[in-house]
Task: inverse folding
């Protein structure tokens, strides 16, 4: 088995148990609420996700901070000193400076540890889309592939990692500048729900709309039908903004329509949830293209 470490950040929204199971180290991004800084650990030790979304519903604002160079250096050095090579899979550079911080840390540590291999990949992914790509990378590592082979596998396939999602409250997209105030007002009045995805540049893009919540959830699965590769044998990840029942509805539709067996469900973490809001549901899978 290849002996190298995989490092990612908490925007991957991996459940703590799964991250441990696949032997992946997760660096926490920070979020600020009520003047206090919290860290988005996979085990939610700083704040329970339900409490986070309740505070958003009550009108509190949350801001976020990327992983910085010092955090990467602190996490990487013990691995390098132990003789490990490291592959970093970072949050989309279009949405965060986290990848750039990893790149600077790799450059700095490359001089200090010239005999170690340290690579970083801009996944152009977010939430459990990033998490699913990390899961695949860990699988390839555990199949005995070298660090270079796994890095190449990720680079070649990251744009096949499809992200389909919808939101329930347009206020948060309006606040983040994704839609105009007029669009948000009219959409709310008419119960219009946007359908969005993460494009090939790693940006959030509106690709459609649906009338009503259930229609928007079906639209995610319809989109999967158009783009999924070997859908019956796929592993599918689903994340949600404190709306587990809706996420389970999407999981049930995916299982029924495609015969999918493996579905992982987890919260949209606070770093992304601060911008997408409560009621977000996102569906991730390998497809022909984004």
Result:
């Amino acid at each position: 088995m290849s002996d190298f470490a995989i490092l990612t950040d908490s925007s991957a929204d991996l459940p703590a148990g799964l991250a441990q199971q696949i032997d992946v180290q997760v660096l926490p991004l920070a979020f600020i609420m009520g003047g206090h800084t919290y860290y988005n650990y996979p085990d939610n030790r700083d704040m329970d996700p339900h409490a986070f979304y309740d505070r958003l519903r009550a009108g509190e604002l949350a801001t976020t901070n990327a992983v910085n160079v010092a955090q990467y250096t602190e996490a990487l050095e013990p691995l390098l000193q132990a003789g490990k090579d490291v592959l970093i899979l970072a949050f989309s550079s279009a949405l965060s400076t986290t990848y750039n911080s990893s790149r600077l840390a790799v450059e700095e540590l490359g001089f200090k540890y010239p005999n170690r291999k340290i690579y970083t990949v801009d996944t152009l992914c977010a939430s459990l889309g990033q998490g699913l790509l990390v899961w695949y990378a860990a699988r390839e590592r555990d199949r005995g592939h070298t660090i270079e082979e796994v890095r190449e596998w990720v680079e070649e396939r990251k744009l096949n990692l499809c992200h389909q999602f919808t939101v329930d409250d347009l206020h948060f997209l309006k606040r983040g500048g994704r839609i105009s105030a007029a669009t948000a007002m009219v959409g709310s009045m008419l119960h219009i729900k946007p359908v969005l995805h993460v494009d090939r540049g790693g940006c959030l893009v509106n690709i459609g709309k649906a009338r009503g919540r259930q229609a928007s959830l079906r639209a995610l699965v319809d989109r999967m039908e158009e783009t999924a590769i070997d859908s019956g044998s796929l592993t599918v990840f689903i994340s949600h903004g404190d709306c587990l029942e809706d996420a389970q509805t999407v999981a049930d539709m995916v299982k029924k329509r495609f015969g999918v067996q493996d579905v992982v469900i987890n919260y949209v973490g606070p770093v992304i949830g601060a911008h997408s809001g409560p009621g977000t549901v996102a569906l991730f899978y390998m497809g022909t293209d984004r």
Summary: The radius of gyration is 19 Å. The mean pLDDT is 92.
